């Protein structure tokens, strides 16, 4: 019960952070093309950020129509991209952005990957953390 309460508290905090975050100058956009790639870009507006992220997605080999807008946070804050795979094979990325600190991003990934809450997963791990300027902070699975 305590874990469920913690997860609920994190979700409420993230929702409040995202709602309050709409006043900041720079945002971060995430785009995913299932099984093909994605894009991540900073922007002053959602339109600017998503246009850049879609362009990155297409440059990576995906068709424009496959590049799905998944996340926007303004201000960007810290972000974490988590790779998740179901025991039956499907896999995806879960991105949480607008977090207050790098430590919060790391803790969020740990909670998202809690196998006692998601026992159907065979893989779950943070694959990238982005700082408030959109810079990648992990190289080969380690934080820089």
Overview of this protein structure:
By secondary structure, this protein is α+β, with helices and mostly antiparallel strands. It has helices at 2-20, 46-59, 102-112, and strands spanning 27-33, 37-43, 68-73, 78-86, 91-99, 121-130, 138-139, 142-143. The strands form three sheets. It has a three-stranded antiparallel sheet with strand order 2-1-3, covered by helices on one side. The longest helix is centred in the N-terminal third of the chain and has 19 residues, at 2-20. 28% of the residues are buried. Mean pLDDT is 86; it is low at 7-22. It comes from Oricola thermophila.
Task: Give a short synopsis of this structure.
The chain is an alpha+beta fold and 144 residues long. It has helices at residues 2-20, 46-59, 102-112; strands spanning 27-33, 37-43, 68-73, 78-86, 91-99, 121-130, 138-139, 142-143.
């Amino acid at each position: 019960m305590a874990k469920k309460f913690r997860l609920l508290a994190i979700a409420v905090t993230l929702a409040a952070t995202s709602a309050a975050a709409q006043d900041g100058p720079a945002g971060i956009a995430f785009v995913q093309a299932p099984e093909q790639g994605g894009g991540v870009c900073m922007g002053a507006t959602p339109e600017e950020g998503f246009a850049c992220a879609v362009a990155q997605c297409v440059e990576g080999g995906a068709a424009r129509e496959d590049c799905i807008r998944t996340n926007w946070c303004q201000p960007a804050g810290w972000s974490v991209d988590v790779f998740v795979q179901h025991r039956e094979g499907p896999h995806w990325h879960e991105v949480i952005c607008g977090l207050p600190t790098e430590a919060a991003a790391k803790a969020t990934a740990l909670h998202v990957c809690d196998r006692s809450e998601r026992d159907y997963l065979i893989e779950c791990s943070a694959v990238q953390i982005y700082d408030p300027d959109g810079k990648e902070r992990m190289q080969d699975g380690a934080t820089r």
